[in-house]
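QA checklist item 7 of 12: single-chain prediction sanity check.
[x] sequence parsed
[x] length recorded as 223
[x] structure emitted
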Amino acid sequence: MLVRLALEMIERDGFHNLTLGRLAGEASYSKGTIYNHFTCREDLLIELSAESARRQLGYYQSVADLAWGGVQALYGLMLAYMRHAETAPVLFECSITARTDTVCAAASEDRLKRRDLVESQMAQVVGSVVERAVAEGPFDNPHLTPAVAVDALRSCILGYAAMHLLSRRFLWADEKDPRDRLLVLASMVQGLGWPRLEAEEMASIQEVVHDIVDSAAAQTTGA
């Protein structure tokens, strides 16, 4: 309940106006009760990033469980990541901010460990998809291992989501053709050594992924 309330406050007033004292007032709790849950505002931010990771883990597992080839599932994971940024921009932004050294230094060790556990579970799902893709034999990059290529791809997707999905100031934020994003994704994947899928197949994967993420997001928010 406190996490949901904190998200509502950030959406309404911005993160810079979120304090544990204000959270206590909104929740009609004493400050002492709030501090029993969170040691500081940074601790709350870590919990918000953990909530973001928990949602992503659910999306990733659903994609990984589909009867897709490894490459198709890899595309699906990336599309799920971007859709999460679109449907839960506050959580996504919190997950980025919560990676900074300043926030991590102030948060409690227990909170950090709980978030790290969820993120390690996500990494296991991604790793299993990569193993499937490698077993199919489509990776072709003499300069990178599949693990390094996936890490580079993750960085590219993070940058794309942060710039073009969170901010309206960037050029691609106003994409007129929905296929543009798929073309960018395919170019990144191909450049790192994975096969480039045709636009029609990527659009089909995107439709399935959006349904997974949107349905789960609606259940989470009670919409």
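[x] summary fact logged: The radius of gyration is 19 Å.
[ ] second reviewer sign-off
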